[in-house]
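2024-03-11 09:14:02 INFO queue: dequeued item chorismate mutase, len=121
2024-03-11 09:14:02 INFO validating residues
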Amino acid sequence: MIRGVRGAVTVENNDAMEIVDATEMLLEEIIRVNEISPEYVASIFISVTEDITSDFPAKAVRRFEGWSFVPVMCMREIPVPNALKLCIRMMIHLNTSKLQKDIEHVYLRGATILRPDLLKQ
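2024-03-11 09:14:37 INFO prediction written
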């Protein structure tokens, strides 16, 4: 079964190093909590808000050993008025035997406001 794993993180500045580092932190946590191996990943979509322009967050994926063959695409989010700024969102499509309810979506830093229903008590 192919499933989607979602996540998001915010940065404080439109800074290349900060963008890639935050994306790495997000991916690392998604991998950890969902026990993901790159050979089971079909693709990764990464979107950014329109105020993130200094670098491609997909560069972070290449920092992980074994992930160089995973297809990654970056795109821009719809610029909705009053939406969360400086936000990087990720969707990983992977083959897994986990049930949908067992997938752990990860929201870090200011992005926790996007899905308060997923916060662990």
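2024-03-11 09:14:37 INFO annotate: The domain at 2-118 is CATH 3.30.1330.40 (60s Ribosomal Protein L30; Chain: A;).
2024-03-11 09:14:38 INFO item closed
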